[in-house]
Design a protein that fits this description.
This protein is α+β, with helices and mostly antiparallel strands and about 210 residues long. It has seven helices and seven strands. A hairpin with a 3-residue loop joins strand 6 and strand 7.
C-alpha cells in the first residue's frame, strides 16, 4: 500500500468510527506508520469534512514534519509511545465506543467466557490506569500491557479504548471486536447468568490465540 492509499484508509476508517457511534464528531483519533514517520488525524475537525490532506505528519519523537494548517490530534503522544514500544504495530486507533468505555469507567477488564475473548484477545482486554487525556500519564501502563503481556487492545480507565495492529483495517477490526464483546457481555449479564467454559476448553482457545501470534 502506498502513502496515498494509507491516507485514504485512515480517513475512511476515521469516518466509519463516527458512523458506527464509536466517537462523536470531534473525538477519537487514528494513525498509521509510514516508514519512520506517522500520519495522524487532526484535532477538532468535523469527521464529515475531514480529507486525506489534513492528516498531520510527525516523526516518532513528535516533531511536526509538514504544515497542513491543522494541529495533530491531542493524543498524538500516546500513538507515538505505542509505535516506539512495538515495532510491529503499523496503525493505532483510539475510540470512546460506548460499551467498551462503560467497562473502562467501571475499571473492569473485558473478560468473560465467550470463545472470542480467548481466541482473539488472549483471555481479557485489560484496563490501563487513568491519565488526563492528552498527557503522558495516559500511556504509563502501555509497556506493561502492550509489551510484557503482549496485548494489542487495552481500555483506558474512565476514558476509552486503544488498539494497535499491522494495518489500519486490522487495528479498526480489533476496536470493533472489543466493542462488540463488551456489548454482548453486558447484555448477557443483564439477561441471565452466563455459562462458563472449562479450563480445558479455555486452554484450547488460548492455544489458537498463541498460534495466531507466531
Ligand atoms: Zn479519547
Amino acid at each position: 500500500m502506498n502513502e496515498e492509499q494509507i491516507r485514504e484508509e485512515i480517513i475512511r476508517y476515521f469516518k466509519k468510527s463516527y458512523e458506527l457511534g464509536f466517537v462523536n464528531m470531534f473525538e477519537g483519533n487514528l494513525s498509521a506508520r509510514v516508514g519512520d514517520r506517522v500520519l495522524i488525524t487532526p484535532s477538532q475537525k468535523n469527521k464529515e469534512q475531514v480529507t486525506p490532506d489534513m492528516l498531520s505528519e510527525l516523526s516518532l519523537e513528535g516533531e511536526i514534519l509538514s504544515d497542513t494548517g491543522s494541529r495533530p490530534s491531542s493524543e498524538y503522544r500516546m500513538h507515538l509511545a505505542l509505535y516506539r514500544l512495538r515495532p510491529d504495530i503499523q496503525a493505532v486507533v483510539h475510540v470512546h465506543s460506548p460499551f467498551a468505555t462503560a467497562w473502562a469507567l467501571n475499571g473492569r477488564a473485558i473478560r468473560g467466557d465467550l470463545a472470542e475473548v480467548y481466541m482473539f484477545f488472549g483471555g481479557e482486554i485489560p484496563v490501563c490506569g487513568y491519565g488526563t487525556p492528552g498527557t503522558d500519564q495516559v500511556f504509563t501502563d502501555f509497556g506493561r500491557y502492550f509489551v510484557n503481556e503482549d496485548k494489542d487492545t487495552v481500555l483506558l480507565a474512565n476514558h476509552g479504548l486503544v488498539a494497535g495492529a499491522g494495518s489500519v483495517e486490522q487495528a479498526f477490526a480489533k476496536a470493533e471486536a472489543a466493542e462488540k464483546l463488551a456489548k454482548i457481555l453486558s447484555i448477557a449479564q443483564l439477561t441471565g447468568k452466563p455459562h462458563h467454559l472449562t479450563e480445558r476448553e479455555k486452554s484450547a482457545l488460548l492455544a489458537k490465540y498463541r498460534a495466531s501470534r507466531r
